[in-house]
Every structure is written in C-alpha cells, then in structure tokens.
Amino acid sequence: MEHIVKNVLENSIAEELEIEPGDNILAVNDHPIEDIFDYQYLINDEYIELLVKKSDGEEWLLEIEKDYDEDLGIVFENSLMDNYKSCYNKCIFCFIDQNPKGMRDTIYFKDDDSRLSFLQGNYITLTNMKDEDIDRIINYHLAPINISVHTTNPQLRCSMLNNRFAGTILERIRKFYNAEIPMNGQIVLCKGINDGEELWRSISDLMEFVPVMESLSVVPVGLSDYRDGLFHLEPFDKEDACEVIDIIEHFQKKAYEKHGIHFVQASDEWYINAGRDFPEAERYDGFVQLENGVGMVRLMKEEFEQEFSAVQGDDREYEVSIVTGVLVYDSIKILVDRMKEKFPNVKIHLYKIINDFFGHRITVTGLLTGGDIIKQLKGKPLGQRLILPSNTLMADEPKFLDDVTLDQFIEALQVDVCIVESSGADFIHSVIGDEMHSRFEK
Prior knowledge:
The protein is an alpha/beta fold.
C-alpha cells in the first residue's frame, strides 16, 4: 500500500528536507511500513534513513539525525496508513444491523480494527487478530487497548458473536495482562443471554486482571425498530436494571477493597431505568468510561454545580430552547430549574425529542436525527437560540445521522444554533447567552 504525503508541517524536519504533498514514503531504515504504528515506532530513533519516492518517480534516500522522539512533521492522506479491517462477527446485538436502509455507506461499515482502539478509542472484539498482531501490540507497547468482552463464557461468546473463534477472549486478555498492556473492557448486556449468572461470571473472571484492566463498563443493548430477521432480544425493565446494578456494586466493593479502584461501572441508563440515584463522583474512577455513557450525567451535574456557584445571577431577559433525548430529560430539567434561581427572567424551553427514526426504544440524545428534531420543533417557541448537544452531529462534519446538514437544519427552523459539549459549564453559559466556542462555527 502506498503511503502518500497529504501535508507537511511548517518548520518541521520534513519541510527542511523538501518532502512535499504527493510524495510516497516507502521505508524507514530499510523496513517497509505496514501502518501508522510501524511508522511511528521506526522514526523514534535518533538516526534514521527515510526512503521517499517523489511524485516524478525519483527515489530519495534521506539520512536524518534528530531527537529520539522528534516527529518528522508528515501528515498522510490515510491517517491509518493502511486499509481498515472490517468485523468478522455477526453479533446478535449489533446496532449497525439495526439501521434502516438508505443511509450513507459508512454507516453500514463494521470496523473491528485494533489500531482504531488506540487512535480513536474504539472497542474491538480481538476476533480478527492473528497471534502476530497481538505480539506487535505488546512489542510496541501500544496502550490502552479497549476490548469488547460481552462474556467470558467461551461457548456463549462464540454464540453471541456468531464466530467460532471468539471463545479465546480470556487467553488473549491474559497475554496483554502478563505484558502489562493497560486495557479497558465493555459488556453489552442482552436480557436472558449474558446477564444474571453470566454477568456475575464475566465480572468475576475479569477481576483477575485488575488493575492492568483499568475499567469495565456494562451497557444495555440498544434495540431499534429495524430488527426483522435478527435474533430476538427483549428490552430490560426496572427490575432487571436493579439486578444489574446490584451485581455491579457488589464487585465494585471487592475491587475497591483490593485495588483502590471500583473497576466495573454501570452506564447511566441502568440507574435511570432503575429509578436510583447516580453514584457519587468518586465511584467513577475519574470517568474513564464516559464514551460508553458511564457517568455522563453525574459529571455534568458536578461541573454544573461548580460553575453555578461562581456565576453571578442577574435580571437579564433572554429566551432559549434546548434539545435533549428521552433518557436524560429529567436530569436536564433539574439543571434548567436550578438556572431559574439566579436568572429568573431567562425563559428556557426544554424539548424532549422522541426518536421516530430508529424507534422509541432508542432514547439517547446521541442518536437523534435532524429530521426528528425539525419535525418536533416546527411551530414551537425556540427563542433567540437553540442549544444543540454536539453528540447529535458527526465528529468530523456538521451533519446529523440522517444526512441533514447543520445549514439545512438552521434553514428549516429559522433559529440560531449553539452547539455545546456535555459539560455543565458549557450548559450554563449557553443557556444565559454568553459567547460560546463550538466545534462547528455557526
């Protein structure tokens, strides 16, 4: 595979050596480059020889003396420097299989690439990794590696992932453990499948690897309306949620007594569905599993209270609207009511958006679509700006999951939009109309 230079950073070694966009990096120290990790590992020496093929076909062998960990300043067209590895599994709970037809092609791509675990924090099953892939991670000491465990029962894991090679998970985790490669784990829980005694077994097995395995999240399976022909799964009810929390909190106590960390965490959805208060902030061990919906509400409340105590209230008059999903509506409403204590003349419209696109069992804010929000806000008072959580948009462009662009969204609702992250401080200042710095400028 070619490794084409996209850009060269100013005042970098690459610029000094006249490496240009369009050049192809062939080898470092006579070693061919497989991907970004090979490249980064090989260029760490104080002396390297870089083989470059110029856009006119001429090859240059560049001798470079530099500091040990000094970067060359090359940005590649393909950030991974290799093709992405797709998933070999057919998991009974896979959300990609539950997408409606007609979405963009990238929505249907199932990645299970270990390299994305380090670059983007993705969780991987380890099922498409060869022994040499495991060895390379250990040799390069790439960390942390985020692992989709789901169950430690070999037969059950093969069944859940529909992959006869999926049962070696404990052996692979143990290999990382022995090499002291930091790990995080994830269990997607399916009712009647890997919950109850199986959940107990999985957590108990994984406790062996603490603290090298630093955290383990337990999240409920997401069930859309597009499950025709898929494995039948039932949603969890309040009693189920209480049982899951009880199991998790049992192991939290054991982990804390032995290792000083709570290790296993329940996602926010369990506490909301159980009608229980969220754990205190200290129980989240630094909120290491936020991306899995673990501790997001607690952290937002903590940040809110800290910032709110420092904010000087006033009698400003302002009208604003806020979009949220069903799951966290009640939690956000508490913050809205608190805002009125210091800003009684700020009128706040909090809108709970029902997910018609995926189905009403999908309640998280991050899976709301532009079309649903537009449809449900048409004709309603929106005030001087609409506050839109950043996780409703794609990470790299201002577009919703249903391909509605931010410009189309603004045009449809005829309102200024403020895109905010999930922090409590951002929430406060967006509500009272302070200037915000959003991911997308609008």
